[in-house]
Amino acid sequence: MGVTLKKLAREIGCELHGDSDCIVSAVGTLQNAGMGQVSFLANAKYRHYLKTTQASAVIVWPQDLPLSRTNALVSNNPYLAFAKAARLLNPEPQVVAGVHATAVVEGDAVVDPTASIGAHCYIGAGSFIGSGVVIGPGCVVEHGVSMGANSRLVARVTLCHDVCIGANVLIHPGVVVGGDGFGIANDGGHWIKVPQLGSVVIGDDVEIGANTTIDRGALEDTVIEEGVKLDNQIQVAHNVRIGAHTAIAGCAAIAGSTTIGKRCQIGGAVGIVGHLFIADDVHITAMSLVTGNITHAGVFSSGIAAQPRSEWVRNAARVRQLNEIAQRLRGLEKRLDEE
């Protein structure tokens, strides 16, 4: 699908500098894009590629316009503008409505005639599949599930019983929504399972990455509010609540009954222990461990960044000596006070 730069600039909200009739049909990186492609510069460390790129057009910050050697689309947010361009040039393929011959749909399930149910799917009793919903091959939708308009399960997704999915939700392969939370009680050294009686409610415009798991609540529901974006392989435990428009990177783990605020950004492999409160607009950097409430907006970090092993060994040895050093310091302070 090709468009003129004039139309592209109008659609993505950029100021065009160059040939308005130039046609682009694809996107690419600065270093590898060629004729007919549009690229972008959002990270300064790639700025030197502006001099050599073969792209037909580049999306740049205003201050980088003088460095461009080709057609330029000027934006105050080049990455966002590039995302819009990529969506425009790569529209979602049209899906044929209907139920595949190998799918099983229980008799009292309601499937909108505009929905598409793929091969080897199962739709349980009492489920509701809304208009324009796409359920890819191998998905399991258990009884009592509700899916809002234009939501999509890509493939091999499992929605356990009574889960509620909003509109325009995108769920990638391998996701399990509504599996039992990790509820167990100790009975004299033996573990007794605690029934998980809540469900999972997912708001509109949520995206859930591959192999992420969202557990159902123990008594009340696990809630993912509108606009939340979850990366791959994230664990969301029972009764967690994630506020609207929060984004969480891959391999993060959130323990039960924690509430995360709106518009938070949580980096990869972050661990958050249970029963915590995290305020709105909190940014937690990768590999951090959160063990206490975060009551105000800001950037929070923990952990030790990678360093040469020889330095790490010396620092680790010092850490083991901290208690001894602290005791010696207190002793010296006491002696100074007595003198």
Overview of this structure, please?
The longest helix has 17 residues. A hairpin with a 2-residue loop joins strand 22 and strand 23. It contains four helices and 39 strands. It has three domains: 87 residues, MurE/MurF, N-terminal domain (Udp-n-acetylmuramoylalanyl-d-glutamate--2,6- Diaminopimelate Ligase, Chain: A, domain 1); 203 residues, Hexapeptide repeat proteins (UDP N-Acetylglucosamine Acyltransferase, domain 1, 3 Solenoid), CATH 2.160.10.10; 30 residues. The strands form six sheets. The protein has an eleven-stranded parallel sheet, with no helix packed on it. The protein has a ten-stranded parallel sheet with strand order 9-12-15-18-21-26-29-32-35-38, with no helix packed on it. A nine-stranded parallel sheet has the order 10-13-16-19-24-27-30-33-36, with no helix packed on it. The protein is 14% helix and 28% strand.
